[in-house]
What does this fold into?
Amino acid sequence: MSYAPVVLDGEDEIKGSRVRTATKPRTLTSPPERSRIGDIRMRVVYRGLAVAAAVAAAAVAVVVVLPSEPDGVVAGPVTAPPAAQPSSGPSAEASVSVSASASASASPSETVTPAAPAAQVTPTPGTSLAPGYTAMEALYADPRVPELTAKVKRMRLPAPSRRVTKDRRSGLAVPKLPKPWKTYGPAPFTTRQVLPRLRGGTVRGMFVTCPLPIMEQKSPRDSALLAARWTLNHHPKGARITWLASQPVRHGWMLVYRVTYGKRSSRAAVVVVDGGMSKPGLAFVTVPDAQRKQWSDIARVASGVRVLG
It folds into this structure.
């Protein structure tokens, strides 16, 4: 009976012998669990981040920021602006035809609301033109300007002055008034002459010319009326007109009037003459009661305005 040699654990195997080292049996254990995130390769993570960034950029590109509505304004359906109405006001037939044509052209999914008729607006004194009114209708509604009736008489005019100032922009030659009048910087007019300013006074005499600053009317008389109303912008606040004279002049019309503001007043005149330019020329003179000695120069202006030869 033979026995195999026994080699203790840790001793080397003897070369050439059949004796092998006895080893302890090994127990197999499962590898440690890893997190799922660690199992994902980094390039996959980077690819996912790139896709998320592209989606966010596309979302920002399609977002449209609309301006906020002003306070008190509620956004509503967009409709075409109503057509301009004639000066005499909108007619019933025009309103019906416009509403009918708009309803016919609208798609079935759209609802067209007919425009409400324009409300009657009274011109505000001091404004040039109220909505829906012609220039003359606004003039007649202005309480500062009374009606020019046939009771307003003509005035006798002196012989025209030989000394003139030429206004080539308006095509007029106008009197060059004697002292104490003096030439002054014309802006915003084309020529200007003024009286010396009184101590403590805010109003002084002024004589100016320029192309007609308002819309020309069919008749020189109506143009002169609108020009007289416009001159109230160059008088103290609250000024009102009283007509003193009205008469035709060569190629135009002349008006002389009193302007009252509080306890004070001025004498004034406008002369509208067609000087052959694109618009008629205007000569306007005003002298306050504090300089009443020069009121006679108003008649000189009225008689001396003529077409520049």
